[in-house]
Design brief:
- The complex is a heterodimer of chains A (111) and B (149).
- Chain A is built from 4 helices and 6 strands, in the order E-E-H-E-E-H-E-H-E-H.
- With 111 residues, chain A is of the alpha/beta class.
- Chain A has one domain: STAS domain (Transcription Regulator spoIIAA), CATH 3.30.750.24.
- In chain A, strands 1, 2, 3, 4, 5 and 6 form a 6-stranded mixed beta sheet that branches.
- In chain A, a hairpin with a 5-residue loop joins strand 1 and strand 2.
- In chain A, helix 1 packs parallel to helix 2.
- Chain B has a single domain, classed as Heat Shock Protein 90 (2-Layer Sandwich).
- Chain B has 3 helices and 6 strands, in the order ββααββαββ.
- The relative contact order of chain B is 0.18.
- Classes of the chains: A alpha/beta (111), B alpha+beta (149).
- The interface between A and B is medium-sized, with 27 and 30 residues.
């Protein structure tokens, strides 16, 4: 499991989650995103195309990051959720809290 | 991680396969423990997709809850995991050494006033991932049943 952080030509920070986002690695993701916020990042996409599963701690850290980014005047979007992960967001009603797109390209276009 | 996880597998002739694992009370063990068990889980009752998502997520939830809320990260306490693989279902038992809790006391995390809370979704998620969630009377052991499919 690992996280990749890239900035596109428009300054959008794209974070890829490879493997899983769970209680054991959520702080690592949080720190990477907060570092990017401190570095002036405003627009964020978290890409779950390569993510197998997310537990409730993982969901919680996304909620926390979303709040933090909004407080800084930024925007966080999610993309690439498989069918099971999409259902998880719908069950927990977190689909109402996040802008979710099918692909990273759609997320980037939506900014 | 300083303690090596040792998975025990019993495959009695004609009987249910049983996997068991003792996990120290530190959250860094959750991911490795889940993978160790999931990759050893014999195919049969659960589809690859249900093992990949439902089984792994449910085990991660139950184990993290047991470490954090049950054993309160106490390094002298262990969480015991036992998985029974039958023809009709997989039953996952997770037991901590804590004092237990009352599941009815956990508020609904989808309430508008709870939606932006960072924590409190574990039990709710668990109930949707598996077919049955049963706690013992004390509240320190949970049995999660995933029926075949």
């Amino acid at each position: 499991m690992s996280f990749s952080v890239k900035k596109d030509k428009h300054g959008v920070v794209v974070v890829g989650v490879d493997g899983q986002l769970i209680v054991g690695n959520r702080q690592e993701l949080k720190q990477k995103v907060l570092d990017a916020v401190d570095g002036g990042g405003k627009k964020f996409v978290i890409d779950f195309t390569k993510t197998g599963y997310i537990d409730s701690s993982g969901l919680g850290v996304l909620v926390s990051l979303s709040k933090k980014i909004r407080e800084q005047g930024g925007d966080l979007r999610l993309c690439g959720l498989n069918e099971d992960l999409q259902t998880l967001f719908e069950l927990t009603k977190l689909d109402t809290l996040f802008a979710i797109t099918r692909t990273p390209e759609e997320a980037l276009t939506a900014f | 991680m300083t303690t090596a996880l040792r998975l025990q597998v019993r495959r009695p002739a004609g009987g249910e396969t049983e996997l068991s694992l003792a996990v120290p009370s530190a959250l860094e063990y959750v991911g490795p423990a889940v993978e160790l068990i999931a990759v050893e889980l014999p195919g049969g009752p659960l589809s690859a997709r249900r093992i990949q998502f439902n089984f792994r997520t449910a085990l991660a939830e139950a184990l993290a809850n047991a470490i954090a809320y049950g054993n309160r990260h106490d390094p002298d306490r262990l969480v015991q995991i036992r998985v029974e693989v039958g023809r009709d279902a997989v039953r996952l038992h997770v037991t901590d050494e804590g004092n237990g809790f009352n599941p009815a006391d956990v508020p609904d995390p989808t309430r508008p006033d709870r939606l932006e809370c960072e924590d409190g979704r574990g039990l709710f998620v668990l109930r949707h991932l598996v077919d049955q969630v049963a706690f013992n009377e004390k509240g320190n052991s949970v049995c999660l049943t995933l029926r075949a499919g």
